[in-house]
Amino acid sequence: MSLDTFVEPLNAIFDSFGGPLLVVLFYWFRFHTLKGTRSFTTRPLFAFGLAAFIAPILFAYWLLPQKLSPLATIWLLIFAWIVPFVPRWWRGFCQELAGIPVSALSLRDALAASPFQVRPDDMPILQRKLSRIGYQIDDFRAVQSTAIQSRFLKISALMLHLDRCAEKRESFMERSADLHAELQSVYDALCFRTVRVLKSSGEIYGAIMEDSEVEPNDWQALDSLSTRHSTVSQLQLAAQTAAGCMLEDLRKDMDSLLNNLLLFAARAALAGEWTLGRSKRRLAAIGFTLAPTSPGILKPVAIVAAFACGWCLLWLLASWTIVHLPGDQSAGVLRTLVTTPLQFIVNFWLVYHFKRHYAFANENIFGRLPVGFILSVGLVSALIFFPVQATFDFYQFPDRPFGEVVLHELPLLIFPWGIGAMTALLVQDSTWGRRSRQTRQLRDGLVFGGGMTVMLWMLLAIHQVVPMPVMEIVHGVTGWMFMLSFVLPTFLFGFIIGYAMIGYLREAAARCPVKRPVLATPVLAGV
């Protein structure tokens, strides 16, 4: 059976969605570059990164069938993956937006730096498990004060909770059963080695102390043995050095295993929960003391998108009898409902991402604003937004020359550029100095509302010189009706977004240090 005979039934069953389904499945597998890619970030972030990765491909699929058959379109989009540099760069960019693998690595680093205390309920279980390998401990609290034994206890507690997750048959543990088995094998070998090294080093130090008639707690006298030049003293020094080397090698092996265990535990927590906050609470139940979760970007972006879409819908309903959308009416309505929230989504996400991870998006050490970033981030947003605008130009004005329409609509990109510049300026930590929160919110609203109004007047002025098809919406509208239908709603729209959301975005984007590369170990990264 040929692929063509397989695509046709899919198109019939899914009402023209069979071809896009095959394209989505192909690029779904291309997005998974690491073993267990999904577990390196939260579910909403993963879904966002995947949607951003596949969206341009679907746009291309909906445009190409007008010239090609569905089968030819599928093959063309699949073979587009072999284009040098561009597809893989886009995948890497979308993975960075999704926090892959930065989210898991950051959580691993937070676990490594956070205090750890074994839960009281786990103490008897750990004591029984460790006693089976000959590791007898009378006082667990005292044990945690030593470098070797505290690491060993932390590793044992982590393995205990991972084993419990495996017994519950969690999906991540089942998919990563091979990694869990490898960690378990390394841990078993480390257990017996720990007992052997601790006993050997204890016997060595005990023999040295007994032969030299040094009290067990007299470390100053023990160190003074190294200054003696007798043969016995030199042998004792060599034995002491060998014992120290064994303990140091054991500590390094423990650190290596602990690093992998922390990453594995972080991935298990991210894969099993929807948000980073819930993942941290799950890890806190093991015994980690983690700092509160910093504000994320998903909530403000979702609120802004919902508010912008609702505001545009209300504006269309209220002004339906006053203004008339040029070109195709349905395409114009869809354009208003999609492009307006999309401009804020793209700009908020870009500013949040760059300010959190790159130094050039923040004030320098002298407190000077990053003027280059403020002026250029909107250009990046405009470049991303341009294909979307061109697509709506094609469908809203099908009876006009496509190239001419796209060229005349270029000034509309002033809105994504201006929104990006205002957002990058207002989210800087030094903006408005030490003013009260309410004062900062009011000024954010005034700047955003005023900026949106200024951009509207600029478009109107450009339209008088270079006619723009979309701006034909103002034709036949009197001056007072223009103020009531366009200027006032635009100012109120920008004011509300600036007043309610910019402060939250400023706080969220200021809580992460400058990005630094952190690499996962090959066995856990699946490379």
Write the layout of secondary structure elements.
Elements: H1 3-13, H2 18-31, H3 43-63, H4 70-79, H5 86-98, H6 102-113, H7 123-131, H8 140-143, H9 147-167, H10 171-175, H11 177-212, H12 219-224, H13 231-272, H14 276-284, H15 298-318, H16 329-357, H17 371-396, H18 402-408, H19 414-426, H20 437-465, H21 479-509, H22 522-525
Helix pairs in contact: 2-3, 2-4, 3-5, 6-13, 9-11, 9-13, 11-13, 13-14, 15-16, 15-21, 16-17, 16-19, 16-21, 17-19, 19-20, 20-21
Question: What does the model show?
Answer:
The chain has helices spanning 3-13, 18-31, 43-63, 70-79, 86-98, 102-113, 123-131, 140-143, 147-167, 171-175, 177-212, 219-224, 231-272, 276-284, 298-318, 329-357, 371-396, 402-408, 414-426, 437-465, 479-509, 522-525. It is mainly alpha-helical and 527 residues long. It starts with a helix and ends with a helix. 29% of the residues are buried.
Q: Tell me the β content.
A: under 5%
* Largest sheet features: none
The chain-level structural class is mainly alpha
- Order of helices and strands, N to C? HHHHHHHHHHHHHHHHHHHHHH
Radius of gyration: 31 Å
Uncertain residue ranges? 139-145, 513-527
Q: What's a quick, concise take on this entry?
A:
The chain is mostly helical. The protein is 71% helix and 0% strand.
